[in-house]
Every structure is written in C-alpha cells, then in structure tokens.
Design goal:
The structure holds two protein chains of two kinds. Chain A is mainly α. Chain A has one domain: Fumarate reductase/succinate dehydrogenase, transmembrane subunit (3 helical TM bundles of succinate and fumarate reductases). Chain A has eleven helices and no strands. The longest helix of chain A has 31 residues. Chain A is globular and about 55 Å long. Chain B has two domains: 110 residues, Beta-grasp domain (Ubiquitin-like (UB roll), Roll); 157 residues, Fumarate Reductase Iron-sulfur Protein, Chain B, domain 2. In chain B, strands 2-1-5-3-4 form a five-stranded mixed β-sheet. In chain B, strands 6-7 form a two-stranded antiparallel ribbon. In chain B, a hairpin with an 8-residue loop joins strand 1 and strand 2. The N and C termini of chain B lie far apart (72 Å).
Chain lengths: 261, 287
C-alpha cells in the first residue's frame, strides 16, 4: 500500500520532480562539480598551491561550510541521484535496435549516471567518511578505508588515490563519467526547458556542449594527472605551513596582482 | 531487357526462396512462439504480399498445416498506420517494406514481430486503444461542433500553416512510441467474469497514468497553435504537465527518426517543453 501511495505521490508531482531533477543536476550539482574540479586541478601547479586553495575554502569555518554543503551540495546530489535511479529503472533502453547518435547519448547518459551514482557515494566516503562524528570516523569509516582526506594536509588526497591501481582507475572512469553526464545533461536540459527548439538550434547547442565538455575534460585531466603523478613522499617533506591561510611563498597572489602594469 | 541475370540486378543475386520468421501469439496473454515460412522468390513483393502468400500457402516451412498469420492492413500506401509492425527488428509499415530491399540487408530471412509496446491481440495484430485514449486525453481536436454558420475561421500565418501541415500528417501508427525507450508496454489482463466495458474502463485508468508519447505531444502542439484550438490551450497544457506528460521524455530522439510521416516530433517536444516551463510558472503565480 505504501508503495502504491509513493507511486501516486510521485505521479501527481512527476512534472515538478523531473524539472527539479533537471535543475539540481545543472546548477547546484553541476556547478559544484566545475568548482570542485577547478580546485583540484590546482594540484598540477604543486601541492602548495592546492593546499592554499583548500585553506581558503576551509577558512570559511566548519559551521559556514556545513550551512553551504547540506542545502547546496549534499541534498541536491541525493535528490538528483535518487530520482535519477528511478528514471533509469523506468526506461527500456533499445540502442541495439535503434543505434542513432542521440539514442547512444541517451543510453550513455543512463550508464554514466549510474556509474557516477556509485562513484560519488564511494568518493565521499573514501575522502570524507560521510559523517563528521568522531566515533563514526574512528571506529567505522577509517577501518573500512574511508575518511582518507585531511584538509590540513592535502597530499593525503593524492596518497589515497595512489593507494592502488583500482582506485586510480575508478577515479579516472568516475570523473570522466561525471563530466559526460553533466555536459550531455546541459544539452538535454536545454531541450527539456525549451531553450533550443529547432534541429538546427539543437545541433548548435550540441556543438557548444562539446566545447564545454572538452574544456571540463581538460580541467579533469589536469586534476587527475596531478593527483596520480605527484610524488607523495617529496611533497610531504616540503610541506610545513605555519599559517594555514597564508598564501604559499612561491606565488603570492597579491604580489602578482600588484606587479601588473 | 529480358535476359537480366541475377548478378546484374542491384544488390547482387537473389535467393531462390524467401524465408520469413514470424513471432506468433495465439491470443492475448498467450505464450509467443516463432514460426518460419518459406516462399519461392518473386521480385517486387512487399511484406503485405508476403503475408498474403503465407495465408494462401497454409503451411509452415516444415510443411505442417498451420493457421494463417493474422495481421492488419488497410490503405496499402503508408497513410493509415494499420500494418505497423517490427520488420527485421525495426518498427515500420509492412506496406512500404519492400522485400528486395530487406533481402539486401539480410538475404537469409525476413523477421516479422508485433509491436512490443502494445498488447498483442493475435500474431502481428496489436491493440492500440491506448493511442486513441491518449488523443482523447489531450483533446486533440478543435472544439467547433454545431450547425450554425460561424463565418470564416481566423486567418493563420503561412508559417503557422506550414508547421501545422507537418503535424497534421500524424496517422497514429505508433512507430514513435514503439521506438521510444521511455514509452513502456502496459498490458492489463482481463479478469474472469469481467465485462468488456469494465475491463476497458480499468485498462483506461491504468494507461491514463502512463507516458503519452511523442505523437500526443505533437498533437497538443498542433491544436494549441490553431487559433480556435488555442482557446483550450491551458486545458491541454494541464494534461501536458500532468502524470505521463512531457516530463517522461528522455530526449533519445528515436521518435523523429522512425516517424514514417517525417513529422518534426523533437521540435514539437522542445516547443512544448518551453510552453510547459511557462505554464508551470503561470500556475504557480496565478499569472
């Protein structure tokens, strides 16, 4: 009976739920992902720069971060993920019978969504351990291989990724799936909301989405390359930052701005 | 040109016989099974004439006497949609499926199946009640219904006429729904002792919640763009964003590729997506 009630509730609000699913995928989840990838790509310039970027974010303080994380990141991701799985389960893919490019994209959107679902849930556990309670982190998350990231020592992120070839591969596949899902999602959202209507407009939008995809793919490649190749032993040795919010000595951002003519 | 040998024909040599594999089903909710038929090759056949020859033959490839394959057809010129079926795994009309073209793709056999998204009545005949129920649900008509002389109708722009003409070609064949990965089959079994009316009513209540499909979205576009039809535009938009409405579309865009009438279905879907967005905000803020 409960299942029938839930189905009826979903049915009556189907339009709103699907549009909210589209919106959450684009703005909070997709927007956060771009910010997240850009932050991580800074590791390509060295661990000091990455540490500085993380310090700036964590300089907001734990309360502010929590106030931003839950309504603008975690809840939208949870909503998008759960509704997304319902959407996947309610479709009957037929790409072998009708192998048109858009149908392939539709099918890839489902596959990358499912991979991204598992990747993100595991990634948040792997790096952050899901919940920030002391007892949970120490007696559950850490023994199970989670909570590997320490914001005060960002090299821990690279260490966690370099721990095994499977983790490295899962990160590469997971990140690329997320990027495809977001970029193809921009294109389909434009059709859903009625931004590009004619086949010609949809082709133009598809080309623009491809440009965005290549750009984001480049940022992801920089982040993945940096995380996979940085020497964790050497970086640890040179990593002594007395004031965590101070910019790294190598590139003081204020100085570089002041030097401009 | 009487001596045109097989090797000179486009598409290469012709087989000596045509093997036709049919997915048969003896009645609603019965177990489907495959049956193969063999016919001597003749040029210039279509799938309808193949089915007629199978009926005349009266036996399968093994020589066993079997009831003829049931199928539907009407216009024989791709205008009615009655003979829509899966031919070599793809949805299309049997009347315009030319055997010589099919044998170029696969000379060994021609595979015929009923549409997979509608309940099978028998063999290749499916029950497409849902398509017509959906047209009623979306009010796919212009409500002018009396004998008074109302004078000439409002003028329509050339541009609007051109779009409306394309959309008006829809024959409700079901191709767009068959090829749509978001449009799922609904088969309601008739209960023992249930009257036909009760059964149809129960079936209608269930299909009413399910996806309307691309054809219905395009019909909402057609009748909302008509100057008289536009008077009921809001009612149609309420249905468009109701349960089973446009939101179920997943933008796989198979509909527009399989449509035999080349209706710009994905353009209609995007245009109705915009209308749905505006309608949603108008409903929220009572605009």
């Amino acid at each position: 009976m409960l299942k029938a009630d839930l189905a009826s509730l979903f049915g009556r609000h189907e339009f709103f739920i699907r549009r909210l699913h589209s919106f959450t995928g684009l703005v909070p989840v997709g927007g956060f992902m771009v910010f997240h990838l850009a932050t991580n790509a800074s590791i390509a310039d060295g661990v000091e720069i990455f540490q500085y970027r993380v310090n700036v974010i964590h300089g907001l303080g734990p309360s502010t971060i929590m106030m931003l994380e839950w309504p603008f990141i975690f809840l939208p991701i949870l909503f998008h993920a759960i509704v997304g799985m319902m959407i996947v389960s309610r479709g009957k893919r037929n790409v072998t019978a009708y192998p048109y490019p858009e149908n392939i994209r539709y099918t890839l959107q489902r596959w990358t969504g499912v991979i991204a679902f598992f990747f993100i849930f595991w990634h948040v556990f792997h790096m952050h351990g899901w919940l920030k309670f002391e007892w949970w982190l120490d007696s559950v998350a850490k023994p199970l291989g989670g909570h590997r990231f320490d914001p005060a020592r960002v090299i821990t992120a690279a260490e966690a990724i370099q721990a095994s070839i499977w983790i490295r591969l899962f990160y590469i596949v997971g990140v690329l799936c997320c990027v495809y899902h977001f970029v193809n999602g921009i294109w389909t959202a434009g059709i859903t909301w009625g931004l590009w209507i004619s086949p010609r407009a949809q082709r133009t939008a598809s080309g623009l989405a491809l440009v965005v995809g290549l750009f984001l793919g480049g940022i992801s490649a920089a982040a993945l390359y940096g995380m996979n190749t940085i020497d964790t032993s050497e970086a640890q040795a040179g990593e002594t930052i007395s004031d965590p919010t101070a910019p790294p000595g190598k590139v003081p951002p204020e100085a570089s701005i002041a030097e401009r003519p | 040109m009487t001596d045109s040998s097989d090797s000179q024909r486009p598409g290469g040599p012709r087989p000596r016989q045509i093997n036709v594999r049919v997915r048969r089903q003896d009645g609603p909710a019965r177990r489907p099974y495959w049956e193969t038929f063999a016919l001597p090759y003749e040029p210039d056949l279509n799938v309808i004439s193949v089915l007629q020859k199978i009926a005349a033959l009266g036996r399968n490839a093994a020589g066993k006497s079997v009831p003829p394959v049931a199928w539907e057809c009407n216009c024989l010129e791709e205008i009615c949609g009655a003979c829509t079926m899966l031919i070599n795994g793809r949805v299309r009309q049997a009347c315009t499926a030319l055997v010589d073209r099919l044998l170029e793709q696969n000379p060994r056999e021609i595979r015929l199946e009923p549409m997979s998204k509608f309940p099978v009545v028998r063999d290749l005949v499916v029950d497409r009640t849902r398509i017509f129920a959906t047209l009623k649900k979306v009010s796919a008509w212009v409500p002018v219904d009396n004998y008074l002389d109302l004078g000439p109708g409002p003028r329509q722009s050339q541009e609007n006429q051109e779009i409306a003409y394309l959309l008006s070609k829809c024959m409700s064949c079901g191709c767009c729904m068959e090829a749509c990965p978001q449009f799922l089959k609904i088969e309601v079994r008739r209960l023992p002792g249930e009257s036909e009316d009760d059964y149809r009513r129960r079936e209608g209540e269930i299909t009413n919640h399910a996806f309307m499909g691309a054809a219905a979205v395009a019909q909402i576009d057609l009748f909302n763009s008509n100057p008289i039809g536009a008077m009921n535009a809001r009612e149609r938009l309420d249905v468009l964003i109701g349960e089973g409405g446009i939101q179920v579309c997943g933008n796989a865009q198979n509909c527009v590729k399989v449509c035999p009438k080349e209706i710009p279905l994905t353009t209609s879907i995007a245009r109705m997506g915009r209308a749905a967005t505006i309608h949603m905000f108008r409903r929220w803020f009572d605009l």
